[in-house]
């Protein structure tokens, strides 16, 4: 009995310690803290992102200066405390003025004590332009088709709406001419010059075709000049808050919104319109305004191409390591190397991708297939194909490790049953092991997609740019252009936050883009999770 008591003495502590309740509570607290941090960050980004689209009311301020009074229009954004030379604290409010064509500073701080009066005039408008950013004006008149309609006329806003609609149609036609039709002529001219240099076409035929293309180019130029001249006949006139006259040609006028006069539902409709434009338009004004459609397209395409490239190689490597390779020191060394690759900084993969894929592989393809275009590179320059391959290498260890774990989880009895029925080893792997392992493999794909979609550092070396005028996939033959550079939401956030010439104006776009990137990653992951769950239910009986 004494020996039994001695042996059990170290474990004969309090009931709470024996059950491990303090450690249970500690791990639960750690999990709760981590979830709350992640959830809090997500809520903050979503609140700031959605708020950037909400049309706020416009303040009309009367500012008391040293000798004069000035009137300034703006939207209050934040406040700060500033000490003067005597050590007295002053509370200052920051206002967004807009009207960059009239004043250098779009944002400015005003001492609260100097604000004599603040009002919200019903007749003040928020105006969106393709140049010089947002404007706050008092509308006066609209000129269209030789007629002038004053702001108080009931036909003022309907006429302005028709003018804006016409302007959108003309701008759409101009973009089509400049990007597609003139671009097609330029590409054919280039191909004709190369064919003429290589003597693939007779000089007479080349000259005849070149003259035809030149005539078509001049016709398109004349058409664009006529459309611009037609747009120049219509314009909106107004005045700034301090009384200066402002003219808005229809060619640069995008939209207007009477923010102070609008009700709640009108504001909601305006917010939806702004969100739609953000998702479908190209960026402008150094990426601080406009939309992010090219960045959305580039992010999704790059992530999908990366997943299609990395999954087969990762699964094949894992099958060989788990099912065919002799388990020894060499295989263990390979596994250690694969695990260490997961910890290599991503910028190292970017340097490798630039050296190997871009300069070596891409340069070789240019020498082999596109020698007539040299020294202008085709594939020997960063592009979305090389970016996808670089991120495929970056995420390859995740796929290999997840696939190996999924393969090892298939019960040995299932394998032996398949072999006992006369199946070969490959048939057993193909028809039993792989289907049963598919949920685990898709888990690795999900993790790889989540990491690859958020990477920025390697992309800066292998293809991502601040602004890409042409998408990697479009309606121009051959329709898929893997050599083109692309935009990415992660790099767009970096560019707005650290490279933008107007950091204050870029803040709303940073939160909105970050929210969009999270939504896209979650959507891609949810799609993969749904597929995984369906496969898991389908093969649940056969695997266990």
What does this structure look like?
This protein is α+β, with helices and mostly antiparallel strands. Among the domains are: 53-140 and 252-280; 293-543, MetI-like fold (Orthogonal Bundle), CATH 1.10.3720. It has 16 helices and 13 strands. It has helices at residues 2-8, 15-19, 21-51, 156-197, 203-231, 264-280, 293-324, 329-341, 346-369, 384-408, 412-420, 425-454, 459-462, 489-499, 503-538, 540-543; strands at residues 59-64, 69-83, 89-96, 107-111, 115-119, 125-129, 135-144, 147-150, 235-239, 245-249, 253-257, 283-284, 289-290. The strands form three sheets. Strands 6, 7, 8, 9, 10 and 11 form a six-stranded antiparallel β-sheet that branches. Strands 4-3-2-1-5 form a five-stranded antiparallel β-sheet, with no helix packed on it. A two-stranded antiparallel sheet has the order 12-13. The longest helix has 42 residues, at 156-197.
């Amino acid at each position: 009995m004494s020996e039994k008591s001695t042996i059990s003495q170290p474990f004969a502590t309090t009931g709470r310690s024996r059950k491990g309740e303090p450690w249970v509570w500690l791990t639960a607290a750690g999990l709760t803290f981590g979830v709350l941090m992640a959830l809090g960050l997500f809520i903050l980004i979503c609140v700031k992102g959605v708020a950037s689209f909400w049309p706020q009311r416009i303040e009309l301020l009367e500012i008391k200066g040293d000798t004069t009074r000035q009137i300034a229009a703006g939207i209050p954004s934040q406040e700060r405390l500033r000490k003067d030379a005597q050590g007295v604290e002053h509370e200052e409010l920051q206002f967004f003025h807009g009207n960059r064509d009239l004043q250098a500073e779009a944002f400015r701080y005003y001492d609260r004590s100097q604000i004599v009066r603040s009002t919200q005039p019903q007749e003040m408008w928020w105006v969106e332009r393709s140049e010089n950013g947002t404007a706050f004006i008092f509308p006066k008149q609209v000129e269209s088709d030789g007629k002038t309609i004053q702001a108080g006329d009931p036909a003022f806003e309907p006429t302005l709406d028709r003018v804006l609609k016409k302007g959108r149609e003309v701008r759409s036609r101009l973009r089509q001419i400049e990007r597609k039709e003139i671009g097609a002529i330029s590409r054919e001219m280039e191909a004709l010059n190369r064919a003429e240099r290589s003597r693939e076409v007779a000089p007479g035929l080349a000259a005849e075709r070149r003259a035809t293309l030149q005539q078509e180019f001049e016709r398109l130029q004349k058409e664009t000049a006529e459309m611009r001249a037609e747009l120049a006949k219509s314009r909106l006139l107004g005045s700034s808050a301090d009384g200066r006259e402002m003219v808005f040609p229809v060619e640069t006028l995008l939209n207007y919104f009477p923010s102070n006069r609008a009700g709640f539902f009108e504001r909601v409709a305006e917010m939806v319109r702004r969100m739609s434009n953000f998702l479908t338009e190209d960026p402008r004004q150094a990426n601080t305004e406009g939309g992010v459609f090219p960045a959305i397209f580039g992010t999704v395409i790059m992530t999908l191409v990366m997943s299609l490239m990395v999954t087969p190689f990762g699964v094949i490597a894992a099958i060989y390591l788990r099912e065919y390779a002799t388990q020894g020191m060499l295989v263990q060394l390979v596994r250690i190397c694969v695990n260490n690759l997961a910890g290599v900084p991503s910028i190292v993969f970017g340097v490798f991708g630039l050296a190997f894929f871009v300069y070596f592989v891409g340069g070789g393809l240019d020498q082999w297939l596109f020698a007539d275009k040299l020294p202008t590179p085709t594939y020997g320059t960063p592009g979305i194909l090389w970016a996808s391959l670089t991120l495929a290498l970056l995420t390859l260890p995740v796929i290999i490790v997840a696939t190996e774990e999924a393969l090892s989880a298939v019960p040995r009895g299932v394998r032996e049953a398949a072999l006992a029925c006369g199946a070969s080893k490959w048939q057993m792997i193909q028809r039993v092991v792989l289907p049963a392992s598919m949920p685990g493999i898709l888990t690795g794909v999900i993790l790889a997609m989540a990491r690859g979609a958020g990477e920025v550092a390697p992309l800066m070396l292998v293809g991502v740019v601040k602004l890409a005028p042409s998408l990697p996939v479009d309606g121009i033959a051959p329709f898929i252009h893997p050599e083109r550079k692309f935009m990415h939401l992660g790099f767009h956030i970096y560019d707005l936050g650290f490279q933008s010439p107007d950091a204050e104006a870029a803040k709303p776009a940073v939160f909105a883009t970050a929210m969009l990137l999270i939504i896209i990653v979650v959507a891609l992951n949810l799609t993969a999770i749904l597929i995984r769950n369906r496969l898991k239910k389908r093969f649940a009986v056969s695997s266990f």
